[in-house]
Amino acid sequence: MAREMIQEGNWIVPHVNGHPDYEKPILWIWILAVFCLPFGVNEFTITFPCALAALGTVYVVYA
C-alpha cells in the first residue's frame, strides 16, 4: 500500500493491486510511506518504523 501511495501520489485512499482498500488504518500506511520516500521501498524501510514503534511501546510501558 505504501509503495502504491508513492507511485500514484494518492495519499488519501490506499490501494492494493489497483483496488481501494479501506480495511487497514491509514495512519500506519502514511508512516511507512514517509519512511520509504527518502530511502526507497525495501525491507529496511518497512521494518524500521515497526521497530521504532516497538521500542517506543516498551519505553512507555516500563518508564
Automatic annotation (TrEMBL):
Q: Topology in the membrane?
A: Multi-pass membrane protein
Q: Which GO terms describe its molecular function?
A: pentosyltransferase activity
Q: One GO biological process from the UniProt record?
A: response to iron(III) ion
Keywords (A to Z) from UniProt: Cell membrane, Glycosyltransferase, Membrane, Transferase, Transmembrane, Transmembrane helix
The protein's predominant localisation is membrane
The keyword Transferase appears for this protein: yes
Instruction: List the GO terms this entry assigns under cellular component, sorted alphabetically.
Output: plasma membrane
Name listed for the protein in its UniProt record: Uncharacterized protein
Source organism per entry reads marine sediment metagenome
